[in-house]
């Protein structure tokens, strides 16, 4: 009977908190972005910028052929459309400066 009581107390006060802390730690580390994820995000961001420049070129070509053409997307020359991109560029520059 005494041996069973010792096992129960050990499981309750050592085993159970260890299991809880183990999975809390796993949960917190899984929520972070890895360096590979950061590299992938940077590549995707650069690709998106290149594609945006290409779309601007295509829209300029279409607009030169058809004066009635009006693009239905954000305009690169409008201040309100450029603000989110500037904010993202600023955040990337800050992150690059910290490394």
Automatic annotation (TrEMBL):
Highest taxon of source: Bacteria
Keyword Acyltransferase: no
Record GO biological process: phage shock; regulation of DNA-templated transcription
Segments traversing the membrane: 6-24
Keywords linked to the UniProt accession: Membrane, Transmembrane, Transmembrane helix
Pfam families reported in the protein's UniProt record: PspB
Coiled coil residues, start to end: none
NCBIfam families the UniProt entry points to: phageshock_pspB
Protein name: Envelope stress response membrane protein PspB
Lineage, opening ranks: Bacteria, Pseudomonadati, Pseudomonadota, Alphaproteobacteria, Sphingomonadales
């Amino acid at each position: 009977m005494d041996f069973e009581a010792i096992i129960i107390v050990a499981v309750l006060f050592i085993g159970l908190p260890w299991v809880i802390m183990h999975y809390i730690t796993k949960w917190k580390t899984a929520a972070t972005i890895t360096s590979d994820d950061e590299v992938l995000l940077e590549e995707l961001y650069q690709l998106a910028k290149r594609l945006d420049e290409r779309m601007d070129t295509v829209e300029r070509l279409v607009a030169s052929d058809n004066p009635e053409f009006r693009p239905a997307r954000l305009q690169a020359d409008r201040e309100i459309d450029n603000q989110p991109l500037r904010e993202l560029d600023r955040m990337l520059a800050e992150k690059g400066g910290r490394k």
